[in-house]
Amino acid sequence: MRILHAYHDYLYPLMPCVHWPSFVQQLVAREDERNRHWRAFVFALLAYSIVQLPRSCLDFALVPELVRYHQQCFSASRALQSRAFADMSSVDIATLYCQHIYLSSLFKKNIANVVLVQAIRLAQDLLNTNCEDAIEAELRRRVFWLLYGSDRTICVMDDTPLLIWDWDMSVPYPRALDDEYLTRAGAFAQPAKTSALAGFHFVSRIFHLLGVVLSALRSRRNNPPNSEIADLLSLPLYVPSSAYTAALDGILADLPPELELRADAPGDQPAFAICRVNILISQATVRQAIQAYAEALGEDTAGHAPSALVMTILRSMPTDSLTANGDSLRMKVLYFVLQGMGSDDASSADFLDMEAHVLHEPPDISDEDDGEDMAVSPEVGTGLRR
């Protein structure tokens, strides 16, 4: 249970793929002994958590033990997983998402991308079915926006095609609502306090804007000049880059005090600190995409570079906040650092200092033998270690 509690404290605000009160009840009631699908999910969540949590959260075990454990959990999850994908729920999609992040953390890009495509297609099918259970409906929203964020991140960092087109789906944003106020029958109003899931709500909106900017940029950049249908491929109207900047600034203006992008933001909870880093880097990624879009339009790009603000705030963040999402968040931080090298508003030395700060972690617990090749029967780990 220590790993799952650490997941809740550090990773749940970034990846809320469970309704926590229901999840705890299922653990206590030993749902893993009755439901093969749910057991596969818990093993996937454990494997994901081990490779994503800050090292300080896992000091109860040696690195070789953690490596062996996350390999066994991942292999057990794959062995228990149904390949028929019949009678799906958000649990099945969340299992695939955890496996995708796990494989990405082990730098197994090809198989990780295959799992992501699988999860996206199944999630789209799931969203097209009616759901009267308010908890399940909200979990479907959350998982979709997790997949959306992963897709947009990969598109930016690897320059790959978009897997989710905004014109294909219309999915409401996840609610900034704590789980204790969400029931199967509906939701109560969030009290005056800021929800632990507010960060996930806002980063989903930021990623949505990133998707819109990327679509416009690629339509402009990749339009084949010699094609006889080139004009038909273009967007009917190219909005000025200032419209995207204004939209981003509008999202950031809605941030609650605990998530505001300033070094002295209130709230010392790890959840808010980690979400601030995620929002900070995500909005910087959007600004870089807007800058590229402005260049494609031939606009003046002065003022688009986000480096000075981001670097100032990143320096104030504890290392645990920068590395709490494993290589997922760390790679986004490093991507920004490398993109900013040699920029006008920050020296290369500053970026190198930040790179060293982000990489200041002990040897990665995921860098040993591959766990996917381990032969594990479906009955491994019938009972979960607590």
Overview of this structure, please?
The protein has one domain (2-171, 196-358). It contains 15 helices and no strands. It has helices spanning 2-11, 20-28, 36-52, 63-80, 90-105, 109-127, 134-158, 198-221, 230-233, 241-253, 270-297, 307-316, 319-323, 326-340, 348-358.
Please give a handful of descriptors for the protein shown.
DNA-binding transcription factor activity, 15 helices, DNA binding
Structural class: mainly alpha
Structural domains: how many: 1
**N→C terminal distance:** 5 Å
Number of helices: 15
Strands, count: 0
Q: What percentage of residues falls in helices of 4 or more residues?
A: 55-70%
Approximate strand percentage: under 5%
Mean pLDDT: 82
Sketch the major β-sheet.
none
Coarse morphology: globular
Would you list the SSEs in sequence order as H and E?
HHHHHHHHHHHHHHH
**Which stretches of 5+ consecutive residues score pLDDT under 50?**
344-349, 358-363, 368-386
Radius of gyration (CA) equals 21 Å
Organism: Cutaneotrichosporon cavernicola
GO biological process, one term: DNA-templated transcription
GO molecular function: DNA binding; DNA-binding transcription factor activity; zinc ion binding
Keywords: Nucleus
Question: Topology of this protein?
Answer:
Layout: H1 2-11, H2 20-28, H3 36-52, H4 63-80, H5 90-105, H6 109-127, H7 134-158, H8 198-221, H9 230-233, H10 241-253, H11 270-297, H12 307-316, H13 319-323, H14 326-340, H15 348-358
Task: Give a summary of the structure in a few sentences.
This protein has 15 helices and no strands. It has 386 residues and is an all-alpha fold.
